[in-house]
Amino acid sequence: MAISxxxxxxxxxxxxxxxxxxxxxxxxxxxxxxxxxxxxxVDALAAVMLLxxxxxxxxxxxxxxxxxxxDDGMVRYFAYLxxxxxxxxxxxxxxxxxxxxxxxEGVGLCSYLLIGFWYEDHTNTIAGNKAFIVNRxxxxxxxxGILLLFWEMGRHGVWSIDFPELQRSAHLLAPxxxxxxxxxxxxxxxxxxxxxPLYVWLPDAMQGPTxxxxxxxxxxxxTAGVYMTARLYFLFSLAPDTLAVIALIGTLxxxxxxxxxxxxxxxxxxxxxxxxxQLGYMFLAVGxxxxxxxxxxxxxxxxxxxxxxxxxxxxxxxxGGEQDMRKMGGLKSYFPITYWTYLVAALSIAGAPxxxxxxxxxxxxxxxxxxxxxxxxLWLFAWLTAGLTAFYMFRQFxxxxxxxxxxxxxxxxxxxxxxxxxxxxxxxxxxxxIFAGWLGTPExxxxxxxxxxxxxxxGVAKADAHGPMAEGLLMALTLGLxxxxxxxxxxxxxxxxxxxxxxxxxAKGMPYRWFLNKYYVDETYxxxxxxxxxxxxxxxxxxxDLRFIxxxxxxxxxxxxxxxxxxxxxxxxxxxxxxxxxxAGTLLILAYYLNL
Amino acid sequence: xxxxFVGDLSLVVFxxxxxxxxxxxxxxxxxxxxxxxxxxxxxxxxxWSLRVxxxxxxxxxxxxxxxxxxxxxxxxxxxxxxxxxxxxxLVLLTAFLGPIVILASWTISERVxxxxxxxxxxxxxxxxxxxxxxLFLFYVFWExxxxxxYFIIGVWGGPRRIYAALKFVLYTMSGSLLMLxxxxxxxxxxxxxxxxxxxxxxxxxNLHLPYEEQFWLFLAFALSFAIKVPLFPFHxxxxxxxxxxxxxxxxxxxxxxLKMGTYGFLRFAIPLxxxxxxxxxxxxxxxxxxxxxxxxxxxMVQPDLKKLVAYSSVSHLGFVMLGLFAFNLQGxxxxxxxxxxxxxxxxxxxxxxxxxxxxxxTRMIDDFGGLWKQMPLFSALFxxxxxxxxxxxxxxxxxxxxxxxxxxxxxxxxxxxxAATGMILGAIYMLWMFRRVNFGPLSRPENQKLQDIGAxxxxxxxxxxxxxxxxxxxxxxxxxxxxxxxxPIIQRVESKKEATxxxxxxxxxxxxxxxxx
Lengths: 596, 517
Fold this sequence. Notes:
The structure holds two protein chains of two kinds. Chain A has helices spanning 2-14, 44-67, 74-93, 97-115, 122-155, 163-169, 175-192, 201-204, 210-219, 224-231, 233-236, 240-261, 267-287, 291-318, 336-350, 356-370, 376-401, 409-412, 420-435, 449-458, 468-493, 499-506, 510-516, 521-563, 575-594; strands at 21-31, 34-42. Chain A is mainly alpha-helical. Chain A has four domains: 1-237, no CATH class; 239-511, no CATH class; 517-555; 564-596. Chain A has a two-stranded antiparallel ribbon with strand order 1-2. Chain B has one domain. Chain B contains 20 helices and two strands. A two-stranded antiparallel sheet of chain B has the order 1-2. In chain B, strand 1 (64-72) and strand 2 form a beta hairpin. In chain B, helix 4 (112-131) runs antiparallel to helix 5 (135-156). The longest helix of chain B is centred in the middle third of the chain and has 34 residues, at 161-194. The radius of gyration of chain B is 22 Å and the shape is globular. The two termini of chain B are 43 Å apart. The interface between A and B is large, with 65 and 77 residues.
C-alpha cells in the first residue's frame, strides 16, 4: 500500500498541468463496432481520487494491523482489502465506461466479501448479500445507461465509450436522450453511493470490520457514484432535468438520513447514516452543477469520516466489541488520543470554523443557494441538515466520552487505549480533517487552489453574481445552527438528563419512533417487493412448473400411451426397441421421398 | 509430404471411440487400468484438438480442415466434416472437459467398464455433431449422443433414474424426429430444384424456398433444438435429468448437450431458413426473456443444489437465445461466448456439487452451512465459480452477458431491459445459495469432519478456473476467431429483412437496425 501511495504521488507529480496521462494495455472486448480497451487515464480528477484511495488506504492498512492482528482470518482480510484497492483504482483510472463498470462491480464484490467477513454469523452474511443485491439493482440501470449511450452515440457515427471521445461528441445527443441516459446512470450511483431509494444496504453494511467501514463504506467506495457523475459531468451538464432530480434526491437523502441518525444507539450506525447524509450533500452539489465542490466535499469527508470510523473502531476494540452507545459513556480518560481525534473530526463534520468540513460544506450550501439551478428550498433543507449533523455527532460524542461510565464493571478493568498502529493513523487523519479544507477556501479568504487544480476537468467556475456579503451571511447562519446543535447535544447528553425522554413522550413518540425505525423503509420494501417476489417464485416452482408445464408434458405422454393400447405388444419398455422403431420409420420416410 | 490417412479433425472425432474400443479388451476387474486408458484417450483427444486450434486460420470465415468421403452414394450422403469459428471452441470445450469428467468419475465403482465406454462414445457423438456438415451425418451423431446419455442417467443415476432417463430420451426424440423429417424433405426439395440429391449443408444453404415452406421446416428444426436448449416452456426434462444423472453426466449435459440446441439454431435453423427466423424473432426473444426471468425465479426457491443449478441453466441459455436472435454481431458473438462460459461455469458448479455430494450424500442446501470453516479452499473456488455465473466483470460471464445485452438492446431495447433483470435475479439466487451452503455456523455434526478438497479435485477444478479468469480478462483470441464465421450468417438474415413478410411488426425497431455492426 505504501508503494502504491508513493506511486500515486509520483503520478500526480508527472501529471502535466491540465493534462491527461494515458496508458493502453490491450484491447479487451471487441465486437464489430464495439471496442473496449483495457486502458487507463489519469487527469486532475482521477489524481485526487488516487491520493484519497491510496493515502487513506495506507493509513487504514496500518490501522488494520492493530485492529485485526488477533483475527484468524487476517490473511484473508488483507487479501480482500488489497483486492478492493485494486478494483477501486481500476474504477478511478478507467478511461472508458465499461472498464469503469468492471471496477464498479469489483468493489461491490469486495464490499460483499468484507461485510460478510465474519461469515459464521448470519446477520453479517445477510448484510453482505443485501449490499451486493441492492447494488445490482442500481447497476441494472447503470448498464442500461451504458447500452443506450453506446447505441445513441453510434447513431451519430461515434462508436466509442472512451471518456475523451464521449466528451467531444456529447453535444450530438438529443436532450431527451441525454436525460434518460443520465437518469439511468444515476440509478447506478444511488445504489453504490447509498442514496434514496437504494441506501438501505449501507447501514447494514456496518456488520463488517470497522476499518472496512472506514475505507469502503465511508471514504472510498461509496463515493464512486459521485466520482462517476463528476467523470461524466459533460453529460450530466447537458441534462438539467436529471440534475434537478439529483439535487432533490441528494437533499432529501441528506435530510432524512440525518433525522434517522439522531436516534440510533449503535455507534457505527450513527456514522453510517451520517455517511448517507454527507453523500447526499455531495449529490446536492452535483445536482446544482458544482462538481468541483462535490469532489471537494468527497475529499474532506474522506478524512473526517475515516477518522470518525477509526475512532469508533478504537473504542469498540478497547471495549471488546461493544457497539451500543448506551453501554458506554465517560470514556474520555480511558481513550485520550481517541477522544481528541474524535473531537477534531466531529468538529470538522459539524462545520466548525476553519476545519475542513467547514469549507467544503459551506461551498455546497453556498452553491445550493447561489448557483443558477440552486434554490432557497434546497438551501433550507441542506441548512437544517447541517444543524442535525452537529446535533447527532455531538450526541454521540457526549454519549461515548462524557457523562457517567455505563460499561460493565469487569470490562472496565481491561479498557486500554489502542496501540500505536491504530492511534497514529487517527492523529494523521485528524490533522487532515482540519487542513484538507484549506485547499478550497472562499474567494474572500485566499480563494481556492482546489478549483484551479480541477479547472482543466470541469472548466472555469462561473463568477459569482452575489457578493461575499451574501456568502458570509449564509455562512454565519450555518455556523449559528451548528452551534445550536452542539449546544443542545451538550445539554441533553453530556450529563444524565431526562430531556430526550421528555421530548419524545411530548411528541407522543411518533417522530421518534419513525426515526428509530428508519421510517420503516426496510419493512416497506420487504412488504412491497421481497414478499410478493418470493411468493411468485414459490408458486412458479411448486405449482406452475411441476403441475402445469410438466403436467402437460407428462399428460401428453400418458395420453399417447393410453391411445396406443392397441400397440401394447410393442411397448416392451426397452429403449433399444424404440430406437429400432425410429430407425425403421426413418428409412420408410426416406424411401418414400426418394421414390418421388 | 504424404497425405495422412485420416485428417486431424477426424482423429479428434474418433479418438474417443477408438478408446472405447480399446476398453472392451481390458478385463472388467482392472478398474485403474480402465480409468487410465480413458483418461489417456480423452487427453489425447484434447491435445489433438489443440492441434486443430493451431492449424485454424483465425482470419477466415470459411470451413476449414474439411474432410469429405462419400458414404452412402446412392442417397448423396457424405462423410463431410469441417470446422469454423462457430464450432471451433465448442469442439475444444468438449475435448477439454473430456479428461476432466473422467477424472471426476473416479469414485464410481460399479460397472466401470461400461460407464467409461459410454462416456467415450458420448464424446465422439458430441464432437461429431459439432463438426458434421452433412445433415444426415449430423443427425446420426445427434442420435449417437442420446444413447450413451440414456444409459449414463439410467444405470448410474439416482433413485428416479429410469423416469428421468426415459423422459430425457422420449422428449428429445420426439423433437428430433420432426427434424429428421424436415431434413429429408429439405434434401428432396433440393433434389427437385437442382437435380442433385445431397445432404451437404453448404449446398443446402443456397436453396431458396418460399416463405411458407421455410416456416414449417424452421418450426420442425426449431422444436428439436428448443427442447435441447431448453427454451421455456420445453425445459421440464432438464431438472429431472440433472438431478438423477451422476456428476459427470450432469456436467456434460449442461456444458455440451444443451449447446447442441443453440448451436443447431446457429448452424442450421437460422441460416437455412433466414426469413422464417426473422418472422419468429419476436416470439423466440419473448420466450428467451421469459426463460431468463422464470428460470431465475424458480431456481431461487429450489431446496436441491442440482435443481438450482439446472434452473439457472434455463436462465443462462435464455441469454444465449436472446443473443442469437438479436441478429447482430454483438449478440451473436456474445451468445457464442456465453455458450462457452456457461459450459465452464455451470460445468464447474456441477462438479462442485458432486464433490460435496460424494462427502455427504445429500444435495439439500439445508443440510449444509458454514462449510467455509471446514473446507476453505473448496469454498474459495466455489466463490469464484459463483461469481462467474453471476457475471461479475473481470470473469468470463460478464463478457458474454454484456455483448448479448448490447446486441439485444439494439434489436429490441425493451426485451433487453427485461433480460437485464436477470442480472439482478442471478445475483439473488446464487448468493443466497452460496450463503446457505458456505456461510453461517458449522452447526451440523456431519459437516464438522468434512475433508477439504484433495489433489485430484484441485486438478479437476484448476484448469476450469484458470479459463474462467482468462476468458474474462482477455476474450480477444476467442472473439476474433468467432467473428468471421458469425458475419455471413448475420448477412444472410439481414439480406432477407426487406423481403420478409412482416407478420409481427411489434418489438422490432427497424430504424435502429440499419446502422451498426
